[in-house]
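Handout, section B. The chain below has 146 residues.
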Amino acid sequence: MQTSDLDADAFADAIESFNRFYIRLPTLEALSFTTLSVLDTLATSPRPLRLTDLTRSEQVTQPAITQLITRLERDGLVERAPDPTDGRAVLVRITEAGRRVGRSRREDRLRHLGPLIDRLTAEQRRALTRALPALNRLAELGRESR
């Protein structure tokens, strides 16, 4: 699919190829992709989230997210609190220990990614640098459209 001057198919292929590589970089924190995704979602959310919000964002079933949050709470990575606006619902927020997991994972990935970036040519590194604002904006647009 061509979108003006960007080949969307080639772009999607490149992003998917990079994602497959990136999410599999070795890390000290051996947690599932869904666990890490939930922690990241909570870490970047400006407010605590309901389980239904997490079910939607993580694209898993309500029982699956409930089980996962129970495990994360047991491990001290998230906390649950009653929703003050709805007595039937709970809000989930990340703890400092949960944030440390995210920071540790990022540091591990950077340790592996840095040497690979060093192997790119100067022009390839400049091209990636020039693409960063557009990639960040594309991610922002994707979050807004949800």
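Note. The two ends are 22 Å apart (CA to CA). Compare this with the example in section A.
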